[in-house]
Design brief:
Blueprint (H helix, E strand, L loop, with lengths): L6 E10 L6 H20 L2 E9 L3 H10 L3 H18 L6 E4 L3 H16 L3 E11 L4 E3 L17 E10 L5 H10 L4 E2 L1 H10 L7 E2 L1 E3 L8 E2 L2 E6 L1 H6 L1 H4 L17 E5 L3 H15 L7 E4 L2 E3 L2 E2 L10 H8 L1 H11 L6 E3 L1 H31 L13 H19 L3 H22 L1 H4 L3 H25 L4 H10 L6 H4 L28 H9 L26 H5 L3 E11 L7 E6 L4 E6 L7 H4 L3 E5 L5 E3 L2 E3 L2 E2 L1 E4 L2 E4 L11 E2 L1
Parallel strand pairs: 1-2, 1-12, 2-3, 7-13, 12-13, 14-16
Antiparallel strand pairs: 4-5, 4-6, 6-8, 9-11, 10-11, 14-15, 17-18, 17-20, 17-26, 18-19, 20-23, 21-22, 24-25
Bound molecules: 5'-O-[(L-methionyl)-sulphamoyl]adenosine (MSP).
5'-O-[(L-methionyl)-sulphamoyl]adenosine (MSP) binds next to β1, α1, α7 and β12.
């Protein structure tokens, strides 16, 4: 008989396609990935959904600035998220974009149904509109006359719009939240929503006049309007799994967990839940609003220029160390502060000293004492205490997953790492090997140690999939963790005696003090101010093809460096004056670690001459030098013969 697997659905918010992906986005996505991977190991059929939010004013404006169609713009931009998720080893089953047909069709279908059922009505509306946030506010919402969310100026607008009768679901929602204590987590956020629902709930304006904002999904019952971005975006959670024709619940619905940041709690807990109720679907089983990351105590913001660029972090520390750090450092519901210093501390203490050291010493003892073969334990074993501790640890971890207590899960797994390290120390294999009786005991001790590491690596797999797989390979286990599943944690003795281990490179090398100092003195996060200078590494090979016309839009010129000096407080940047024939450009270039200023004088370079000027460390840069980054060594592009200044390069 065919048995169907139990389904499990987890989602992240869909990210604004215009944003440069940063660690805040990575945080939610990694958190969702951990759950998805764990549930797959448990035997569930998992659907893990993420994607991009592609309509709205900001996208339209950005496309207009670039003089391209918004569709072309989002087709390019959404890849930055896709590529980052590939780099972070994210195992999403689907990636939804709100400009896809499947999504637009369902939004249109739902709007039509709700309109026919008189859940949507037209009314005139007067309110304060925040253009950047695309939201209306009432007079009493404003803070100091400005938008309560972003603090920017608002405009008074009077217009006709369409409204969803959200207010009619207020009492139902209040009751629902009170009856289902796991619906909104953590508890502090649940109370926040209940507090919000104490005040009268208005109806939700779900349209925008096309003349003001043409980039959106048209209302099926009035061609002069498009759908409000939030009403459009929230539906992604069900449009990914097809239509809701004939009142059929979409596959995988209700979602088991919807992970969101605390800033988008109201839109999910109130707008989304009432929309679902009106559509005739249940709310998700759990909405978890996590905290926000600050950077060295400050809010991460494009205007401050302190946004932490995840590609750079991956280049520097590796994927698994970052995945581990983000979920270990701070409880999921609370805000946390990101600093390179605490990241390095975690890598050194938890990964290199604890887990890494456990693996290394075990491998070298098996090499030395047992000729690279996992020995057979001598029975009966007298180590039931150890086996029980692991059993208890595995049960605790399982329980902690229910409440998304990532940091506690990791803490609990690391207690098992400590237990194993202590087990080795107490039994001192280096002494056992000295006597014949000791050698018998040594076989049991080494067998159990390997078995402990096998269990630990299955437990860390959802957090650090690559490292876990590497550990299993080093232990000589051929099956993958995905094939083995959590089943293989149930009984002690999963590894066969006689298995040949495959020692490899050190998994988590320590970041020595000198190197740490160098990293810390070079921390220059990428923000709006200097992101143009940062090229995320191409990970899917060569970039997309472009037409010659597109290439010709880049004005490359020959130029001669006539002045070069260091910039105070920056290890990477030099301030240059470049003569390009009819003018002299000031250029801030990130080449200080590879070139001494004096050696640059009179050198002919290639300048990107029509790049929009940006300020770096407060100094305007009016162009960019062409160079290759050869594993951190910057090599400037040049010529074998000396051309004149200001000549176009093609
Ligand atoms: N497009 C909407 C979501 C629509 S879902 C139907 C959106 N996008 S967003 O790109 O601005 O934000 C996506 C998520 O990133 C939010 O959950 C937000 O909380 C999270 N973060 C943005 N900055 C963050 C930090 N500094 N720290 C942690 N998470 C943060 O909102």
């Amino acid at each position: 008989m065919k048995t169907s697997k139990k389904k499990f659905f987890i989602t992240t918010p869909i990210y604004y396609v215009n944003d440069v992906p940063h660690i805040g986005h990575a945080y939610t996505t990694i958190a969702a990935d951990v759950i998805a991977r764990y549930k797959r190991l448990e035997g569930y059929e998992v659907s893990f959904l993420t994607g991009t939010d592609e309509h709205g004013q900001k996208v339209l404006q950005a496309a207009r600035d670039l003089k391209i169609e918004p569709q072309e713009h989002v087709d390019k931009l959404h890849k930055r998220f896709k590529e980052l998720w590939t780099r972070f080893n994210i195992s999403n089953d689907d990636f939804i974009r709100t400009t896809e047909k499947r999504h637009k069709e369902l939004v249109t279908h739902i709007l039509k149904q709700l309109y026919d059922r008189k859940e949507i009505y037209k009314d005139s509306y007067e309110g304060w509109y925040c253009t950047p946030d695309e939201r209306f506010w009432t007079e009493k919402d404003l803070v100091g006359g400005n938008c309560p969310e972003c603090g920017r100026e608002v405009d008074k607008i009077k217009e006709h719009n369409y409204f969803f009768k959200m207010s009619s679901y207020q009492n139902w929602l209040k009751e629902y939240i009170k009856l289902n204590d796991k619906f909104i987590q953590p508890t502090s956020r649940r109370n926040e929503v209940l507090g919000f629902l104490e005040k009268p709930l208005g109806d939700l304006c779900i349209s925008r006049p096309k003349e003001r904002l043409p980039w959106g999904i048209p209302l099926p019952f009035d061609e002069n309007y498009v759908t409000y971005v939030w009403f459009d975006a929230l539906i992604n959670y069900i449009s990914a799994h097809g239509s809701i024709e004939k009142n059929k619940t979409p596959e995988f619905w209700p979602a088991n967990h919807q992970l969101i940041g605390k800033d988008i709690l109201t839109t999910h807990a109130v707008y989304w839940s009432t929309m679902l109720k009106a559509i005739g679907l249940d709310p998700p089983l759990n909405l978890f609003a996590h905290g926000w990351w600050t950077i060295n105590g400050k809010k991460m913001s494009k205007s401050i220029g302190n946004v932490v660029e995840p590609n750079l972090l991956i280049d520097q520390f590796g994927v698994d160390a970052i995945r581990y750090f983000l979920l270990r450092e701070v409880p999921f519901g609370l805000d946390g502060d990101f600093s390179h210093k605490s990241l390095i501390n975690r890598i050194n203490s938890d990964l290199a000293n604890n887990l890494g050291n456990l693996l290394n010493r075990t491998m070298s003892m098996i090499e030395r004492y047992h000729d690279q073969m996992v020995p057979a334990p001598t029975l009966p074993t007298e180590d039931f205490g150890l086996i029980d501790e692991f059993k208890k640890g595995i049960e605790d971890v399982h329980r902690l997953y229910d409440d998304l207590s990532y940091n506690k899960i990791l803490e609990r797994i690391w207690l098992l790492v400590d237990t194993t390290n202590k087990y080795i120390d107490t039994n001192s294999p280096w002494n056992l090997v000295k006597t014949e009786n000791g050698k018998l005991r040594l076989c049991t001790v080494m067998y159990n140690t390997v078995e402990c590491i096998r269990s630990i690596s299955i437990l860390i797999y959802p957090f650090m999939p690559k490292s876990a797989d590497t550990i299993m390979k080093q232990l000589g286990i051929e099956q993958t963790i995905e094939e083995l599943g959590l089943e293989s944690l149930k009984n002690w003795g999963g590894i066969k005696p006689g298995t040949k281990i495959q020692p490899g490179l050190q998994l988590f090398p320590r970041i020595e003090d000198k190197e740490a100092e160098k990293i810390l003195s070079n921390v220059e996060p990428i923000g709006e101010k200097n992101k143009e200078q940062y090229q995320p590494p191409a990970i899917e090979g060569i970039c997309d093809q472009v037409l010659i016309d597109d290439f010709m839009k880049i004005d490359l010129r020959t130029g001669k460096i006539i002045e070069a000096e260091k910039i105070k407080k920056s290890k990477k940047l030099l301030k240059l004056k470049v003569d390009i024939g009819n003018e002299v450009r000031q250029v801030v270039a990130g080449i200080a670690e590879s070139y001494e200023p004096d050696h640059l004088l009179n050198r002919t370079i290639i300048l990107v001459a029509n790049l929009k000027p940006v300020k770096l460390m407060g100094i305007e840069s009016q162009g960019m030098l062409l160079a290759a980054n050869n594993n951190g060594q910057i090599v400037l592009a040049g010529f074998d013969l000396e051309p004149s200044k200001g000549i176009r390069v093609r």
